[in-house]
Amino acid sequence: AMQPSTDWHLKENARDHHTSKFSSKELIVRRGQAFIITFNGTEQPEQNLTFIAETGPKPSKLAKTQATFGISSTVSKESWSAVLQSTSSNSVSISISSPPNAVIGRYKLSVQSTSSGSSSPASLGTFVLLFNPWSSGDDVFMPNNAECEEYVLEEFGIIFAGNKNRINSFGWNFGQFQGDILNICLSMLDRSLNYRQDPATDVSHRNDPKYLGRVLSAMVNANDDQGVVLGNWSGNYEGGKSPSSWTGSGEILRNWKKSGFKPVKYGQCWVFAAVLTTVLRCLGIPTRTITNFSSAHDADGNLRVDEFYDASGNHLNRAADSIWNFHVWNESWFSRSDLGPSYSGWQVLDATPQEESGGIYQCGPASRNAIKEGDVDLDYDCPFVFAEVNADCMYWNYDPATGKKTLIFSQSTIIGQFISTKAVGRDDRVDVTNYYKYEEGSTKERDVFKKARKKLGLEDKFDPTAPTPQEIDQKPDISGKFKVAGPLEVGKDLNLILVLANLQSDAKTVHVNMTAWSTVYTRRPVHEIWKDSISVTLSPKEEKQFPIKIPYTEYQQQLTTDNTIQVTALCHVEGGIQVLMQRDITLDNPTIDIQVLGEAKVNKEVDVEVIFTNPIDMEVMDCVLQVEGNDLLRGILEIDIPPLKASEKSSTKFKLTPFETGPKHLLVNFSCDKFADIKTFKMVNVTD
User: Fold this and answer.
1) Which one from 327, 375, 584, 672 is the annotated catalytic residue?
2) What's this model's pTM, rounded to 2 decimal places?
């Protein structure tokens, strides 16, 4: 039998297939496009060669996981084909093409000579086949080249967080082309529940981006399947890394593999979304992260979120529903042959384990166009995603002693604001809210909401938990709000003003119960920080202001790594209905500064300086600096920094040796006992 040796033309094929960023000794190509190989050891005339490409544990022609093809004069659009390029005395060069709907994954390629009858096929080796957004026949085809560059090839991302009053952002290293990441992504597919139940059928569906997107949305969270990341929203992250301390997906995916595929501790929504972005970009499906501010988690599917407060104004953690300060999910780009062309394009996938779908924690793909049009009966999970951006909010007073609840007020315009993603080719925020819904308060928007309610059977069903029309129409006698009066910074006292206004032409007596709690970004209360109550008489139409001061010393111990505080005032108006004011406050961390000292040149050492000034009047300890950046350094650099006295400035220097040219991003995370995860990034332009 022949023992051919194969030249995979790695450089040329990778350049033609947009796979040069993978650092692999194995051929990695995209489907629906030709690649060249040369091999020797065949004595036969070329016409007599038959090739076999096969993938998965039980390759079969029927399941399209095996293809057998001879040499032909033209490329076939429907099936695998081989076209002769050139021959010499002992070697032959062949151009091999796969169909644009081929199953993706690792293939074995063998060649057999037909004329010698029964000789067994000789192995040429293995290659990996990926989705091809540059090819017009592919389900993931993306006509705009700059978008392909961003959503498939870009390894740096920006994730938006904070709250609707104060959007902040941080960098993330997706790292989809790092060393072992592709292999880890492929083993993730082989660990899914679907694969474990029926490997052959699962592999035969791997030509379909909507199938893979759904399977991977389940695999990225640890629920059900020992997936990649274990979620934790308690505010206590002992036994793992706090969700806000990660700076990239590579470390998480490698830890998962290194531990023998045990879930990595811990993640929250942006970690799930970032890891899913890495995996899908790696496989060639254009993907981005999306942040939705004031995001509803509607647990019972009634397009309504209920929040409960006790008489003291404490936000009670008693409902499954919640309104998150922000939530991060994914959009992936592909066509929806199952729904029709008007539902193709961006599809919502969400790997954060919030609600079960089909019995497991997975979500999507939900067509973004279907969400905007209220077509919530379409696959998959449209009602949940629709509620995330559209639910109505009801705020209730709840008396734990009697179990009685009274509606305080309802709102239909606060959910789903400033929906954000990173710009293509720039480090800026782009607002995509108007792709999710019609303008808030417009008749079109209300019509879509009614249509969605109708499709879910909510219009004609009596709901005993819903407020009565009389309750909804009640008019309060006073209005109020919290105003910020001073800097919102960790380490400084928090100064607010409670503004109360009498809307009526007779005097009103008001008893106000106020609380402040530290929360996680999902607005789940963690520790009480402060409470106070006042009684006040407002003359007709009078407005009064009450300053509130919460000293740093009072909140410092209670703050979570999210730096979020919820302030609430529940006003009991004599002879009138209760009025609730609340404000979610995200405090900014102090800043940290990176300077590259000199020019960054490929394969030359350059010094980087990181500067941090302790802004508070006490010592900070346990200071650690964490640095990562693709093509700038390998792995993650950790530097311990000595304690800093009050107001002391620290300068830390380290060296980098960039190994690729072009615009690269350096990500820095600084932590100490008083400040969690101060993040920044710096674009470094590396030249020859």
Assistant:
1) 327
2) 0.96
